[in-house]
């Protein structure tokens, strides 16, 4: 199976001004494409070649894992963004309130986790094995699926995700991602 750059559900300039066309040209068009190209080279002629991306993330390690997980994580990230504000469905708002006290408390805790992650990685909202909503920090290519959790929402906190638009203001980027979230898609993953 050859892995390909997924088509964005919006145009490259649709997320402006929160996320610029230039950022998407580099983050989506170059960084994600490089992970996909590397993955295709690494899995050629191996048992991974015919696996789904999710199966590779769950079974691989080393460079194969890193490139597969970065491909999966980035695809998930870009697919969860929306050009126009999407109201949070009551089902999701209720679950967040149950888990974190309120939607606003979730947003604050999520932002704190994303901003506070040392180095590069990902901040995730996930559903654990017991169905509880949790916020998970994962460094590098980490993904909560490897811990038996179901990813619901993610923010990429690698510098390449935000440095063009926000320079060193990771917190402002995280806030923008929360504003760009397609909460309908997040709720559908519950």
UniProtKB/TrEMBL annotation:
Molecular-function GO terms, alphabetical: metal ion binding; superoxide dismutase activity
Keywords: Iron, Metal-binding, Oxidoreductase
Major enzyme class: oxidoreductase
Pfam families: Sod_Fe_C, Sod_Fe_N
Domain Manganese/iron superoxide dismutase C-terminal: 90-189
Keyword Metal-binding: yes
Residues annotated for Mn(2+) binding in this entry: 27, 74, 156, 160
Catalyzed reactions per annotation: 2 superoxide + 2 H(+) = H2O2 + O2
Entry superkingdom: Bacteria
Residue intervals of the Manganese/iron superoxide dismutase N-terminal domain: 2-81
InterPro entries found in the cross-reference section: Mn/Fe_SOD, Mn/Fe_SOD_BS, Mn/Fe_SOD_C, Mn/Fe_SOD_N, Mn/Fe_SOD_N_sf, SOD_C_sf
EC id: 1.15.1.1
Biological role stated in the UniProt entry: Destroys radicals which are normally produced within the cells and which are toxic to biological systems.
Protein family: Belongs to the iron/manganese superoxide dismutase family.
Record protein name field: Superoxide dismutase
Annotated source species: Candidatus Cryptobacteroides merdavium
Taxonomic classification: Bacteria, Pseudomonadati, Bacteroidota, Bacteroidia, Bacteroidales
